[in-house]
Amino acid sequence: MTSNFPVLKNIRNLLTVAISTCVPILQGAAVGTAQVSEVPYPNSNGDFTTAFVRGNRGYSANERWLVVVRSGDPRDANLDCRYTPNGEIRSHVRAGAIVEAVFLGSPNSPGSMEPNWANDAIVLEDGMTWLRVRGTSGLFYPARAGDWESLGECYVRANWHYGAPVNNDWSIPPRSHP
Known about the structure:
Blueprint: H1 5-27, E1 52-55, E2 58-61, E3 64-67, E4 78-82, E5 89-94, E6 98-101, E7 122-125, E8 128-134, E9 140-142, E10 153-157, E11 163-166
Antiparallel strand pairs: 1-2, 3-6, 3-11, 4-5, 5-9, 6-8, 7-8, 8-10
């Protein structure tokens, strides 16, 4: 079975290319096809340099990010969230959590289609990118046992090894419990 895996992978890649080539052609014939927003992409180092995404009406904010922690070590299922970029650890986030990015204001500058970079949720500190998030998920827990008051805003590395943007158009709103 393992000898067939490369063949299956090649077939999957071929189907992906075929579908991505055919879908735009077929979408032209579809009635009422909606556009789906993009997500931020990492640079060649895997760093996300902005949480803003350019759209046809200016920029939008990519608000949700999935914690992935791709270290390869199964014991490493947490991501450290820090008080300041590369500062003291405030809390930990479990892999699989969806965190909410914290922006300082609107993505667009007033009267302009250009972004207001000062409002971005991603900041650069000592050559590393950091994503400002809010620690509200049940998958956040404090660095110091019992210190649940410390789950406020904190910073996680904005790198694909630790997280991935979740498309705003595909986000599922939280269920309300009766």
